[in-house]
Amino acid sequence: MTKKKLIIALAGNANVGKSVVFNYLTGLHQHIGNWPGKTVERAEGTLSFKDYTIDIVDLPGIYSLSTYSLEELVSRKYIAVERPDLVINVVDASVLERNLFFTLQLIELETPMIVALNQMDIAKRKGIEIDAEKLERLLGVPVVSTVATKGTGIYELLERAVEVIEKGQTTRREVKYGEEVEERIARINKMLQGIEFYYPQRYVAVKLLEGDEEIAREVDRLMPRAVEAAKKLADEIENLHGHPCSTVITSERYEAAGRVARQAQKLVPPVRLTTEERLHNLTTHKFAGYIIMILSLLLIFYSIFTFGNYSSEILNNLLERLQPLSTGVFGTGIVGNLVWGGVAEGLIAGVTVALPYIMPFYIVLYFLEDSGYLSRIAFLMDNAMHKIGLHGKAFIPMMLGYGCNVPACLGCRIMETQRERTLAAFVTTLVPCAARTVIILGLVGRFVGIQWALVLYVFDLFVIFVLGRLAFRILPGEPSALIMEMADYRMPQLKTVLKETWFRLTEFIKIAFPLIIVGSLVIKAADVSGLLNPVANLLSPITVAWLGLPVVTGVTLIFGVLRKELSLILLAALLAPAGLQSLTPVQMVVFTLVAMFYMPCVATISVLVREFGRKKALYMTLFEIAFAIILGGVALRLLTLFT
Amino acid sequence: MPKSLYEPLRDLGIPKHAGDQMYSKSIEDYLKAIYLLSRNGKPISTSEIAEHFKIAPASVTEMMKKLAKKGYVTYSPYRGVHLTHKGFQVAEKVTRKHRLLERFLHDILRIRGDKVHSEACAMEHALSDEAEESLCRFLKHPDRCPDDEKTIPACDLPFSTCEECIELHKKDLEESGRREHVPVSINQLKEGARGRISFIRGGRKVLQRLSDMGLTPGTEVTVVKSAPFHGPLEILVRGSRLALGRGMTEMIFVEAEKA
């Protein structure tokens, strides 16, 4: 007998342990993709429970169902239009009032739902005791207490979920607004009689009063009269209350959430500060906070680079041993050359970046994120990021950029608006990643002096500052300020961290590998057909005349597009037997400068295309090529002036 | 009255002998200076004020004693000068008028940049409250002054957003009464202080975002701390901990709770 299919969506605020619940429910049967046509993540997984195969859809963590962000719009549309069989609302018991504000909005959407009262353990430690049964009575929807990190209550959650789906939900309590508002909702309701919407009628009436643009557009097509009337009624409320109608309704909804929260919870103020509290105070302290941040970042980068360097080399040597196998099968002719030198070398290039550098990077990142430390870093860095027109959260992708630009550009999704995502991504591509660090340290650091390498890093920050400000001026739109929750610190769960890492890593492989391999193949083909040298000669007006570098750098810079440090490795090989030492210090600095800025690597470009479209990706790439060439030439002339 | 007291006024080209009215002008100037010089409500020294006006500290001391007698400041020789609630309100009002005038002179009359400030200094004392409100509406409720991007203090009308003021603009403003306390922007609260939101500036989107996060008019907020270098503010609202960027905190006005 085939099992019946059910779809259950998980919805809730950020930082409530939603992804832990998701992992607990679905185990390894998950996949992460995008909502069609949107750069909003969609995580899905399946599980078997009793007679059912259940699809779990993890909606983005949001605070409201208004349409401030893409995430909120996507979530609301999904619940209203695609109608999952049930919504599980994951609620943080330790911040009940704000979480119930969202719960009430779900109830207003009239979707079948149950509440998972999660993080009961944290609430207890903060001195908050919640009567789940009372909460259930007050809300009129089933409430199950859970501690997802320990798996407590998850089975019961599923049982209640299936029960609600089988029996249907009848008991929900509507949010009652003040008399003035209710009276006007009733009047709009009357006008909307007889029209079919995928949103419930009362919900449409409330949203029209709130001035929701998306819903007003929909109603306008069917019943423009109602939109007009709602506008007038909203003005009346504004005159009565002295606040805009949407603020009045949000306030009253919050009041309702507060009432429920106060009735269901008992507060016993904790006598002394909890460990989480003390850790928070320390990590956001005006001196200690910065010291801790700098030290932990240095430690993280140092250990990842050390580990990456070491394991990357071992891995590379191991994989290179496969060459005889390849030549055995494909021979040493053109085909063999292309297979090994193109496809296999491309693969090796990808693998030796992904495993040794990117994997540990993701592990650390998710560890920091799940613990709550990233939001503290954003808090400390907000002011600095404002100088380039971004807010504190943008520091996180930038920081990631020092490891690898690919995850960093993907990480720009944490910014709220498309403009800020673009701006953050542009700035991020200027950050010297691990590969560029290899060039900076391996060429300038080793042969010119470590202090010059440091100068280059500082100069890079300067470039980021200047170009960031410039881009901020040029890109149209308003800058938005930071509004960010700093959830309590908590112990990250290893399983969740590893799972996130695994999904990001596969995402990276999917995005980056095809381009790295194709790029590698194309370059190898050009090499085999003897096109490389003519191209290098073609570039010589730039490389030799303008930048004062050897002709071969034309070739190495082309290879560097695949993986930036390749340009250095290849340069060493092409300059043999004299080697890199045959370059003058000025040439080394110029070469490094160009390599740092001349364009994002193919993997990064593919992310830019995916996130921002071809046009913006092309503009950024072209700009950076031009910028690097100009910068290199100017640097050459200035440096020769002083030496 | 010591002669040097008139120094700041002479700079502005105002004649000396104008009796009582003149006296109120210099009070406003002093209060404004104390308001601008003291950061986070900390007391300032008389020598700082003296330096600001480029006059002798002794004459400042004398003036401070007078202001203290009138209940505008608290003053003790060693701890310095501190604005009282009354003094603070006068100072905010003058500062508001000053910065609104600056916007007017700069945006509408297109007065030369370096003249804007001194012109506004001369005009601020003569501007009536009614004219100030009309000016604010006429300028479409500006947030900042033109020369150094400082925030314009909130008005004392009982609205929660500027849009309401625009809506009601035809009605007689006198009808809607006045606030008992002038609200201050949330970043002026001291660490650990509490206040009730009375007024939020900004467009629909910002308003929606803030109210979704629980910041609605009437809500009580506690300022926990502010990040250094004018960084964001950490606040507690409805049991959750939020970080608010500086620009945002200048737009949220609260009525401070008396400690």
Key features of this structure:
heterodimer, A: 643 residues, alpha/beta, Rossmann fold, Helix Hairpins, 7-stranded mixed beta sheet, two-stranded antiparallel ribbon, 27 helices, 10 strands, elongated, B: 259 residues, alpha+beta, Arc Repressor Mutant, subunit A, Diphtheria Toxin Repressor, domain 2, SH3 type barrels, 3 domains, 6-stranded antiparallel beta sheet, 10 helices, 15% strand, disordered N terminus
Overall 3D shape of chain A:
elongated
C-alpha termini separation of chain A? 83 Å
Report on the biggest sheet of chain B: 6 strands, antiparallel
Q: What is the distance, rounded to the nearest whole angstrom, between the alpha carbons of the first and last residues of chain B?
A: 37 Å
What is the fold named in CATH at topology level of the domain at 4-167 in chain A? Rossmann fold
**Most strands sheet of chain A:** 7 strands, mixed
Q: Would you kindly provide a written description of the structure presented here, covering whatever features stand out?
A:
- The complex is a heterodimer of chains A (643) and B (259).
- Chain A has helices at 18-26, 70-82, 96-108, 120-125, 132-139, 154-167, 179-192, 201-210, 213-222, 224-241, 245-264, 275-283, 288-320, 323-330, 334-371, 373-386, 395-401, 405-411, 418-429, 434-448, 450-474, 494-528, 532-546, 553-560, 566-574, 585-597, 602-642, and strands at residues 4-11, 30-34, 41-49, 52-58, 86-92, 113-118, 128-130, 143-145, 265-267, 483-485.
- Chain A has 643 residues and is of the alpha/beta class.
- Among the domains of chain A are: 4-167, P-loop containing nucleotide triphosphate hydrolases (Rossmann fold, 3-Layer(aba) Sandwich); 179-267, Helix Hairpins (Orthogonal Bundle); 527-642, no CATH class.
- In chain A, the strands form two sheets. Chain A has a seven-stranded mixed β-sheet with strand order 2-3-4-1-5-6-8, sandwiched between helices. A two-stranded antiparallel sheet of chain A has the order 7-9.
- In chain A, helix 3 (96-108) links the parallel strand 5 (86-92) and strand 6.
- In chain A, helix 19 runs antiparallel to helix 21.
- Chain B has three domains: 3-83, Arc Repressor Mutant, subunit A (Orthogonal Bundle); 87-153, Orthogonal Bundle (Diphtheria Toxin Repressor, domain 2); 154-259, Ferrous iron transport protein A (FeoA) (SH3 type barrels), CATH 2.30.30.
- Helix content of chain B is 42%, strand content 15%.
- Chain B is built from ten helices and eight strands.
- Chain B has helices at 7-11, 19-37, 46-53, 57-69, 85-108, 113-123, 129-138, 162-167, 204-212, 246-249, and strands at residues 73-76, 80-83, 184-185, 194-200, 220-226, 233-237, 240-244, 252-256.
- Chain B has a six-stranded antiparallel β-sheet with strand order 3-8-4-5-6-7. A two-stranded antiparallel ribbon of chain B has the order 1-2.
- In chain B, strand 1 and strand 2 form a beta hairpin.
- Residues 1-22 and 170-176 of chain B have low confidence and may be disordered.
